[in-house]
């Protein structure tokens, strides 16, 4: 089965073709970073309009690179949620229309299921069961994965997601958009231990997260320290390092608890923040101490992309699931509300 995948949940337009026998044939992503940089964040209406402009040319490009025509496509997968409703409707509308015109089934894919399954595109792929940390701009979740389509939410952020906290703290430090990667780059120049930020919700049981307090702590530290230190650039780097260390250690502590509770030795990290170098190093070290292993998608598949949607859609279409002619977009959509992939 050969599936066209379309991702338009936020500010990346992703398209891919995945073949069940041959694997990922082609994929591309158009980023809207330059479009939104002047505003310091994603403007939903601008995002939707740019998806409209980019999507059809990108589909033509990817299908040509994959050596695929409409006659070769056996199904279409598109992101149905969660995300920005206008952006979702662009991809869902075109994806469902193409499937109808080509006479093939269509499936609306959960954006976070796409991230969760993205490491299965790599070699070696993690075996089931495993625990997944889904960590991005909009989500921070720990999920127990018994099999594809069988998920149990273990914990999530009660306020800001980790990526959102990165971006907001980057604004406090007057860093350019997108803030998360800029903060991580600045943190490379910071002195470890110069400042110590709290590790929120690690002094109590449970697997939920809270990162909004770190943002406030960073704001207060900036106000106090930049007024007293003459080396303001180094001070900014030291604060960035302290913030990154706090987020990373918090994530690692919770991941350790999750794999211990689930009794597994495999941990999957996915989502944009999973590309963070320091996070990967700390997670790898933690899992090595447990004689386990961490799995990640390649860097190009950490951020939003069509490949993960094509792959996740392929799994569900192959299981006989598909959408009716009507389609919908779901800005909010709990991951554990998804139907199981295979009936037992």
From TrEMBL:
<feature type="binding site">
    <location>
        <position position="276"/>
    </location>
    <ligand>
        <name>substrate</name>
    </ligand>
</feature>
<feature type="domain" description="Gcp-like">
    <location>
        <begin position="24"/>
        <end position="311"/>
    </location>
</feature>
<keyword id="KW-0479">Metal-binding</keyword>
<keyword id="KW-0963">Cytoplasm</keyword>
<feature type="binding site">
    <location>
        <position position="115"/>
    </location>
    <ligand>
        <name>Fe cation</name>
    </ligand>
</feature>
<comment type="function">
    <text>Required for the formation of a threonylcarbamoyl group on adenosine at position 37 (t(6)A37) in tRNAs that read codons beginning with adenine. Is involved in the transfer of the threonylcarbamoyl moiety of threonylcarbamoyl-AMP (TC-AMP) to the N6 group of A37, together with TsaE and TsaB. TsaD likely plays a direct catalytic role in this reaction.</text>
</comment>
<dbReference type="InterPro" id="IPR000905">
    <property type="entry name" value="Gcp-like_dom"/>
</dbReference>
<feature type="binding site">
    <location>
        <position position="167"/>
    </location>
    <ligand>
        <name>substrate</name>
    </ligand>
</feature>
<feature type="binding site">
    <location>
        <position position="111"/>
    </location>
    <ligand>
        <name>Fe cation</name>
    </ligand>
</feature>
<feature type="binding site">
    <location>
        <position position="180"/>
    </location>
    <ligand>
        <name>substrate</name>
    </ligand>
</feature>
<keyword id="KW-0819">tRNA processing</keyword>
<dbReference type="InterPro" id="IPR022450">
    <property type="entry name" value="TsaD"/>
</dbReference>
<keyword id="KW-0012">Acyltransferase</keyword>
<dbReference type="InterPro" id="IPR017861">
    <property type="entry name" value="KAE1/TsaD"/>
</dbReference>
<feature type="binding site">
    <location>
        <position position="304"/>
    </location>
    <ligand>
        <name>Fe cation</name>
    </ligand>
</feature>
<dbReference type="InterPro" id="IPR017860">
    <property type="entry name" value="Peptidase_M22_CS"/>
</dbReference>
<keyword id="KW-0808">Transferase</keyword>
<keyword id="KW-0408">Iron</keyword>
<protein>
    <recommendedName>
        <fullName>tRNA N6-adenosine threonylcarbamoyltransferase</fullName>
        <ecNumber>2.3.1.234</ecNumber>
    </recommendedName>
</protein>
<comment type="similarity">
    <text>Belongs to the KAE1 / TsaD family.</text>
</comment>
<dbReference type="Pfam" id="PF00814">
    <property type="entry name" value="TsaD"/>
</dbReference>
<feature type="binding site">
    <location>
        <begin position="134"/>
        <end position="138"/>
    </location>
    <ligand>
        <name>substrate</name>
    </ligand>
</feature>
<dbReference type="InterPro" id="IPR043129">
    <property type="entry name" value="ATPase_NBD"/>
</dbReference>
